Amino acid sequence: MFLLPLVGRLCAESRVVPILKAIDENYKMKKDIRAEVTLTQQRAGQGTKIIDMAYFRRDSDDAFLIVMNAPENEKGNGYLRVGDNFWMYRINTRTFQHVNRDESIGGTDAHSEDFETRKLNELYGPAVSSGTEKFSEEMLGKVPVYRFEILAKVNDVDYPRQIFWTRRDNNLLLKQESYSLSGTLMQTAYFLKFTQIEGRYVPVKQMFIDEFEKGNKTIVEIANLVPGKLDDKIFTKAHLENLSK
Amino acid sequence: MLLIRLSLRNLLRQKRRNILLGSAMAIGVAILVVANSFSHGISDIMFNKIMRYVTGHVSVRFNERGGVMREIFRDKERALAAVKGEPVIEESDEAVGMFTRAIGNGRSENIILVGIDTKRNISAKAMKEVQESFRLVEGNWKDVENEALENPVIISSEKARTLNVKMHDIVRVRFRNMFGQDQAARLTVAGIMKNDNIFMQPVVFLELEKEKVLLGYRPFETGSLSLKITDPQKNAAALADRIHDRLKPGTAVIQAVVSGRAGSAPAALLGYKSDDESKAGIRALLKLAAGSFEKAFKKDGVFIPASLAKKLGISAGDTVKLRYDRKFFKDPKEASYTVSAVCSSGCPAGAVLMNDSAFYDLYYEDMPAGAGKTVYPAEKLGAWAALAAPEWILLKRTYNTDEYKKKYQEIARNKWKGTTIDVSTMYETASDILKLEYVLNVITLSAVLVLFFIILLGVVNTLRMTIRERTREIGTVRAIGMQKNEVRDMFLLETFFLTLFASTAGLVLGFAAMWALTLIPITMQDNPLGMLLVNGHLYFLPTFAGIAGNVLLIIAIAVVTAWFPARRAADMSPAKALGHFT
Question: N or C: which end of chain B has fewer CB within 10 A?
Answer without folding.
Answer: N
